[in-house]
Amino acid sequence: MSDVITIGKHTELRNTAHGLLIYNKLDWPISEHLIKYGECSWEEVEFFAHIIRPEWTVIEAGAHIGTHTIPLAQIAKRVFAFEPQ
Length: 85
Description:
Blueprint: E1 4-6, E2 11-15, E3 20-24, H1 30-37, H2 42-51, E4 57-61, H3 69-75, E5 78-82
């Protein structure tokens, strides 16, 4: 699979540092970070990696497009992610 697949006028599927993500290219700065660096908010992900235990269940309220959800799911036993929009 290519690193990027264009899905629509403003939507792409990208292979990121943590896995596949679909995002809106106009959703700045998240899209800019995914395009430039292949991830978004690495400091936060690193912080979570140090405090979350593999046997935990994590609840992520305000998951947006999953830039934290995917790496959390690679750390914790289970993740429940909610996005009110």
